[in-house]
Amino acid sequence: MTTAPHRTKTLLPLNSPDASLATVGGKGNNLARLARGHFPVPGGFLLTTQAYDDFVAQDNLSEWIADQIRATSTDDPDALEATSAAIRQRFRQTPVPEDIAAAVCRAYAELNARPVAVRSSATAEDLPDMSFAGQQDTYLNVLGEDALLDAVRNCWGSLWTARAIGYRSRNHIDHDQVSLAVVVQKMVQSDASGVLFTANPLNGSRMQTVIDATLGLGEALVSGLVEPDHYVVETASGEILDRHLGEKATVIRGVDGGGTQTEQRTHADRPALTDAQIRDLVILGRRVANFYDAPQDIEWAFADGALYLLQARPITSLYPIPEGAPEGRL
Fold first, then answer.
1. pLDDT of residue 320
2. How far is 156 from 49, CA to CA, in rounded Å?
3. pTM, whole model, 2 decimals?
4. I need a surface site. Which of 33, 221, 257, 295 has the fewest CB within 10 A?
5. Predicted local distance difference test score (pLDDT) of residue 75
6. Is the distance from CB of 120 to CB of 46 less than 8 angstroms?
7. Domains of the chain
8. Weakly modelled stretches of the chain, pLDDT under 50
9. What b/e readout covers 301-326, taking b as 16+ CB neighbours within 10 angstroms?
10. How much is the pLDDT for 102?
11. pLDDT of residue 208
């Protein structure tokens, strides 16, 4: 049994009541709420935005970044890419402050030094009116202290990808007002994974659950390498209304020494899920939607028969319920 990481200004247990949008970003805040709600969230810890702020306070790094951004036309894609590359290279060359590195290594040891997933969590993401998902980076199956600290630095640097800089500029988000937290969780070596919508994004129905599933890690689905299995389920009854098995010829799995590998497989149309697993997902989706009192976009994984909740965020593209219409009819 692992113990909870010590609480500091720069590091919090995953279920900490001190986790907020300002301290741990959108993804971290959502995961902390779900962990406190006793959902099946993989264990881990949160590096707060204070850790990022301490990192960029070294050697006038934050001032240097501001100078780089001011000197760059965000309408020039090549200039934006060059500025992003320079900033991210500077991040890779800057050491993690000793106190933060020590806290990370202690918390990692308390996870029994097993592989972890390292995900960035920005203070402007996963908000109901700001579809910011995917702007920052994720590192899977990270093994060892050095690799973990490298992944943390790379996550911090991902706040400054050309895509993220351009996104903030287009949406009038002040570059000086955003920060980045990092979520570190035990790695789920998933047999099947995917996404679940607790309302149907295509027709707006709040009475249908939509599931996309693939084999192995969900990165194959997120990156568009596979055509997933697709299910539409009547939420109340669990009846599968539509079932389409995709060509899942590409599978991404964790490697024993750390990192991931991509495999090609035969029998690519074998279902990723059993009907019982589909029912379990629908039940989980209902619980999460009720918890937030809003339709949710959920990332999930099955490993060794157990279901894990990897992330939940509001569905930002859903048709609103017409005024006066009963929600149960939609």
1. 64
2. 10
3. 0.88
4. 257
5. 87
6. no
7. 11-186 (3.30.1490.20), 192-329 (3.30.470.20)
8. 1-3, 126-134, 323, 328-329
9. bbeeeebbbbbbbbbbebeeeeeeee
10. 97
11. 97
Owner of token pair 């290594």: 105
User: What pLDDT, on a 0 to 100 scale, did the predictor assign at position 141?
Assistant: 96
Residue with tokens 């301290």: 23
